[in-house]
Design brief:
heterotrimer; A alpha+beta (about 100); B alpha+beta (about 450); C alpha/beta (about 290); B: 9-stranded mixed β-sheet; 19 strands; C: about 290 residues; alpha/beta; Rossmann fold; 2 domains; two-stranded antiparallel sheet; about 25% helix
Chain lengths: ~100, ~450, ~290
Amino acid sequence: MVMTTHEEKMRTVRFRVAATPHIVVDSEVCRDSGCSLRACVYVCPANLFVPLDDGGILFNYEQCFECGTCYIACNQEGAIRWSYPDGGYGVTFRES
Amino acid sequence: MSAATASESFDVIVVGAGPAGSTAALLCARAGLQVLLLERGEYPGAKNVSGAAFYGSAILNELIPNWWEQAPVERYICRRDIAFMSPTTSVALDFHCAGEGYTTPPYNGFIVLRPRFDRWLAAQAEAAGAFLLTSTVVDDVLRENGRVVGVRVRREQGDIRGKVVIACDGVNSFLAKKVGLQREFHAHELSLGVKEVLGLDPTIIEDRFRLSGDEGIAYEYLGAITEDVHGGAFLYTNRDSLSLGVIGQVSSLVERRKRPYELLERFKAHPAVAPLVRGAKLREYSAHLIPESGWSMKPTLYTDGMLVAGDAAGFCLAAGLYLEGMNYAMQSGLAAAETAIEACRRDRFSARALSGYRKHLKRRNVSTDFRAYRHAPAFVNSARLQNLYPEVVASGMEQLFRVDGKAKRKILPLARQMMRQYQLKPGDMLRDGYQVVRAYLW
Amino acid sequence: MHIAVCLKHVPDPSTVEVDPLTGAIDDGRVLYMLNPADESALELALRLRPADGKVTAISIGPADADALLREALAAGVDSVVRVWDASLGPIKPAITSVLLAAALRATGLPDLVLCGGYSADRGSGTVPALLAEHLGWPAITDVTRFEIVSGRALVQRRLARGARAESEVLLPAVLGLDLDRLRLRQASLPKLMRAKHAPVPLCGLEALDLSPQDLHFPAMTLHEVMPPRPRARMMFAPDATAPVQERVAQILSAGIAGKSGQKVEGGTPEQQADAIIDFLRQRGFLEERAGP
């Protein structure tokens, strides 16, 4: 099975989910700034950003690769607050 | 083994147990310093991703003679293949070397899997006497009178003092940014790599790639593989798996609204790649940012009580022909360690006392290489090189080799026709030619 | 009060990949972790510990388990002990419980033993009860909540179908916990550093005064591992002797007979009982007993 769906890809990754999110998306900022680019939705390799009809963004931190791409790609000051999860939590790569 | 306790302070605190951090800790520990090596992952390498072609064998061999005999390596690289792609064709430069130093010790390069390799390397630092703590995030540095005097980890009573802090905390380096050594990056300076490890039987790998024993091959691709997203792709042979990935400039991914994992699927489906990966089974998917802009994203490398090394300092050479990070990470880690050792010997830790770092980076050819290739990243990421030229070369070759009963055309008229077809302007080509010369020739 | 907590190193289920053809597990890709139910038990023990109390963590396994016990030390337990012997191979709950009981006796009997109710790998849930048996103590399993009041544990148990039972037990006792997930606290930096190279005492069979004979249980041999196969489904066939109309009706009802009742009226109680037994036998609920 060479070709895989994104869900199949994500199933191969091991996450130890922390109790609190390490990334917080402030949907107010997305809405108020009228962000139409929504870069986070496209660039996230784990596809964790879901655009909402009201212009906000729904974010799931549980399967985050902690790569930092969303933070770099977002052009709205203060929309994404980013840090690393607590030690030992988050993604654990086994082979990559 | 050092039996450090909490009340003690350390000579050197290294943040991040990747190739830069672990080699720095190893060298400092060997010099008899009290070294604390901090890693936020469950084990060193748990958060680390690269291709991973490791071209630092000779460097590591100086530290650990015949290191490849004990380290988890996949295969040594005896062939490199750089391919220009169009949607249906590929033109490749295939370099096969069976010469001294490539297929014999110390070997030019190895393919490794980072979670295993980094874990082994950190264990070497530990064996040398460094105190390794995993599952520990560093949130900030401690400052006194403007000088860095330690770090604050995200745990109760998490302040710990060290005479020198070496920040090897990777591409997102929060520490360098907190201290004001590094600015925020722009989306065009970083690339996102998405990768898959695909399991495949070793005998199939050896047959399919014409390898024997521990030989391995590194493929790098440029052109239509990432469509109009600036970037490239790679495929490396591991022992019983393939490492395959697509790299895309973040700003370019945003502009084109491309999802990185969809590019990965297109890459695997390309007619030049599909037969290579046929029958392989996905073992792990991963992603990581790459600091691709080299010299232009270099931070201030040191301040009072602190040094920056590895990806955190942008020491990753993505210059088309070269795709190297781990070797520069190690070289910069070693240079930082040498600086820290000197500082401890003289018991002076001001920025001035640490300014020897530049000298060591130069001696280890880190700054020399990055300065020499400082024009390459921008050139490699230019639109014409990324999208147009691979397409032109590929379709030019396609016409050159096509036999359809019509009169064969010689190369010059064909080139003229290609230029017309792709609206190539002689001025642009001349400019790009100059860029090549400036980026690579002298 | 002295609380002992039993910890087990288990494979993280999300890293266990079973080859669908051979049923084999790729060992090289498995990551181990502290059994989640034991993690909850450990955190609870630390929360319950009074100022003059003591928590001991105990684990059975080869040297890998030291990491687990050091994690417990870093989190704040007062002492740890690992039980292992070179003669031991893969072990089962019957042996685990004998070893645990012996180790608890050797290191000083606690007032309370907390176990995670089920392990993430084997999940038999039998260790707490077997351990209590070897210690001669009461055991309560499936405990969802409890408090210690003057030498007694007041316990709430989970029963089938969402029911709960409340009971009370005199300490010392063994509790098998079935709590909502509690995360183990983040260790402080000084404790983490002290635990890093802390020695983990090891108890072998000799130290426990056990002989291989004590661990001899009727052997179970693993013959084969097979992937699960869906159970065969009975297809309904209409009664061939019935008239066409009825057969069509039977097919359309897919074999589901209506719940037709039958009232038993009149006769002596014995006759009524016989009628009920006949009815059940006709419906196939009772099987004829063979022989006397």
